[in-house]
């Protein structure tokens, strides 16, 4: 049996820009991509904490150390600059792989700089 599992997550990122006049995707600082193990052009799910919107798109790398999180194209209508979001990528694992796999979870500060990198989550409020 194959299972769809959380592979990577960037939690509490702040939208720095919403660019309607772009072909599509989400631009993410390439340092955040590297830390989270999310690849360029990888499919991601975006959840807007402020308004509850959920959408899927793909990733393009932004300038390192820019802290950019920019939704582009039609997805820009689902968010506003300043909104807090969660960015998640998934993988498909067999049952044995899933039992030992731990996702990469990145918690960020308000400016999208990395606060903490973990391989797990626990129930409760954000630190």
TrEMBL record:
Keywords: Autocatalytic cleavage, Cytoplasm, Decarboxylase, Lyase, Pantothenate biosynthesis, Pyruvate, Schiff base, Zymogen. Pathway: Cofactor biosynthesis; (R)-pantothenate biosynthesis; beta-alanine from L-aspartate: step 1/1. It comes from the Bacteria. One of its GO terms (cellular component) is cytosol. The modification Pyruvic acid (Ser) is found at residue 25. It is found in: Cytoplasm. It holds the Pfam family Asp_decarbox. Substrate binds at residues 57, 73-75. Binds 1 pyruvoyl group covalently per subunit. Catalyzes the pyruvoyl-dependent decarboxylation of aspartate to produce beta-alanine. Belongs to the PanD family. This is Aspartate 1-decarboxylase. It comes from Clostridium frigidicarnis. The gene is panD.
């Amino acid at each position: 049996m194959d299972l769809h599992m959380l592979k990577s997550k960037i939690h509490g990122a702040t939208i720095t820009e919403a660019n309607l006049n772009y072909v599509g995707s989400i631009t993410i600082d390439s340092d955040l991509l590297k830390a989270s193990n999310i690849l360029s052009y990888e499919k991601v799910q975006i959840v807007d904490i402020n308004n509850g919107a959920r959408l899927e798109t793909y990733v393009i790398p932004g300038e390192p150390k820019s802290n950019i999180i920019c939704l582009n194209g039609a997805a820009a209508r689902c968010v506003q600059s300043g909104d807090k979001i969660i960015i998640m990528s998934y993988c498909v694992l067999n049952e044995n792989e899933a039992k030992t796999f731990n996702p990469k979870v990145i918690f960020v500060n308000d400016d999208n700089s990395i606060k903490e990198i973990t391989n797990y989550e626990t129930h409760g409020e954000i630190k």
